[in-house]
């Protein structure tokens, strides 16, 4: 089966907040600060916005097919949100891959659901549950316990939120680089500074960490031999070297 590992980065959806909270006349930065303040009041301290008020600014993927391994961010730095999201779901239509994420069930996919709803995006293959394709009846992208989407954080924690762990800590524990140069809390500031490329690069390193943790997960559950695991890790290293992009070479250096 084709494999698509994915990760998203988000910023406050200031346009929707203006409609919901009547914040017309304020700048994006002012609207976002109002959103954060309201959220702090609601939660007692956390500024983390609810899923429907998150706007997707980057989607990065690792695609593994029988003859291909690649990492990239969808669209380009000027692509509108709807184009990036449509490309993600078009990839599912094209490859029908196994999706792999870290906390995708808890964050990435619900955000993508709301944004696809907002933009009127067609994602028929993703939403298939057996009505048109019987093979999806017992293994689809929507069910929490099906493998067609494997949320590594959820599965490894035994579906127990109290046992979940941050990706960067698990990756570092296993000898992988973990987060490099940025984290989710810095994405909004980087966006305001116009550093979309930096956000995309950071997202790509996150999705690489996820893929490497997935390989170890496959080894643990007997789907890969030790030799197969080492061979695939070497293939990732070779791919990073061949790509030659500074952030990927930095990732490779931190891994080695």
Written overview of the protein:
The structure is a single chain. With 256 residues, the chain is of the alpha/beta class. 51% of the residues lie in helices and 13% in strands. It contains 11 helices and 5 strands; from the N terminus they run E-H-H-E-E-H-E-H-H-E-H-H-H-H-H-H.
Give a concise summary:
By secondary structure, the chain is an alpha/beta fold. It has eleven helices and five strands, in the order βααββαβααβαααααα.
Strand content: 5-15%
Order of helices and strands: EHHEEHEHHEHHHHHH
Quaternary state reads single chain
- For the largest beta sheet, what order do the strands appear in spatially? 3-2-1-4-5
Mean pLDDT: 96
CATH level-four homologous superfamily name = Ribonuclease H-like superfamily/Ribonuclease H
Which features characterize this protein?
256 residues, alpha/beta, Nucleotidyltransferase, domain 5, five-stranded mixed beta sheet, 5 strands
What layout of secondary structure does this protein have?
Elements lengths: L2 E10 L1 H8 L6 H16 L10 E11 L4 E5 L7 H15 L2 E4 L2 H16 L4 H4 L21 E3 H5 L10 H7 L13 H6 L3 H25 L5 H18 L2 H10 L1
Parallel strand pairs: 1-4, 4-5
Antiparallel strand pairs: 1-2, 2-3
Helix pairs in contact: 1-2, 3-4, 7-9, 9-10, 10-11
